[in-house]
Fold this sequence. Notes:
This protein is mainly alpha-helical. It has one domain (3-116). 61% of the residues lie in helices and 6% in strands. The chain is elongated, with a radius of gyration of 30 Å.
Amino acid sequence: MSKSMIVKLFLGSLIGLAGGIVLFIVTGALALANDIFIMRGPDVVGVRSSALAWTLLGFVVVGCLVMMAAAIAMFVAWIGAVLNTANLPSKAWCVSLVVIGLIGLPFIATLAYVIAGPDGAPQGPPVSRTAAAVTGSDVQQQGFGPSADSGRHAAPSAGRTS
Length: 162
């Protein structure tokens, strides 16, 4: 996984987390404003069942699911960062990401990697010099371009003619 993919996953998880939190808070505020909760002092002792209550409960569930998906995406970004730095010759980044993540702070570890971490993703196969040096004029000189066919005529096709 490349660093750019890890950064996109990290930022997407932050956006998902923020969206889930906003949805959760707005839904809770609407429930409080519409007296859906039966309160006895500071304690919620019941819920008034109505169409609005069930709709808001659905939005609370959606907000919780979005926050859980964001947490999973953050975990995947942390694992990607650990695996990406494992390819580096120096294992300092890999060890620090693992230790910080295992003590319960994978967000901090991934944030540090996104801000200052090296990209340890393996690159594609190197391009050979002969493939990079071929130009359009070389192709024409070797008999593959349009100038090589200018003196020759194409053979008639074997298909039907009308």
